[in-house]
């Protein structure tokens, strides 16, 4: 593996991109789970799929668009979808959970229409659905690096606000925190990270990378910061382990990463149960 990593650029891109995604996805996933918005990643991933399909459709009909990376339009669609979710949450103040299935349905509808206009699935779109080690270019790596740096800066600067709003939004508003703008900034970060993660994990599985490591860490962590640390650790183990196994076994990396994350979750559940039985 080390020899191949030194020799092939696509493996370098995949490993380094995986390390970055294994950091940002669980990091934001902790706040998502605490807010009880775990399904928001599914909604935004399907909106991102619509953006990817639209970009592939444009490249088929416009010569000038053929050199544009589809991930950029996917990020644009995802960002717009995230703002749409926030507007729906306001419109359905007492039924905020409706914002997610509405956005998810719209994303699926748009994606199906764009895919049909592009004459069905092709190799590029299939790799975005399920993840592909080969599909990650050096430009994708630089994009993911930029997204990671931006997310880390925002989380560090707004950590107290994000923490406060996630646990007690009403009290945060009373304390003078501008929750409206914090919500917008956070949901935009989630949207961009989802779009950046799709080539590693795949659109259909990206939400699992945001929730499974968090679900595992919650069972054994003793505080919020420890939950973040363990979530990132489980995320990194899942991504790197999944990429290595996918390389040797010649299987889809997205599914392998998610299965490893699920195994880690089951392991923490079993370990926690054994600890509780010993204490009894």
From TrEMBL:
It is a multi-pass membrane protein. InterPro entries: ABC_BtuC-like (IPR037294), ABC_TroCD (IPR001626). It is found in: Cell membrane; Membrane. Keywords: Membrane, Transmembrane, Transmembrane helix, Transport. The chain crosses the membrane at residues 14-34, 39-58, 70-86, 98-121, 141-160, 181-197, 203-221, 228-248, 254-271. Gene3D superfamilies: ABC transporter involved in vitamin B12 uptake, BtuC. GO terms for cellular component: ATP-binding cassette (ABC) transporter complex. One of its GO terms (biological process) is transmembrane transport. Belongs to the ABC-3 integral membrane protein family. This is Metal ABC transporter permease. It comes from Exobacillus caeni. The lineage of its organism: Bacteria, Bacillati, Bacillota, Bacilli, Bacillales.
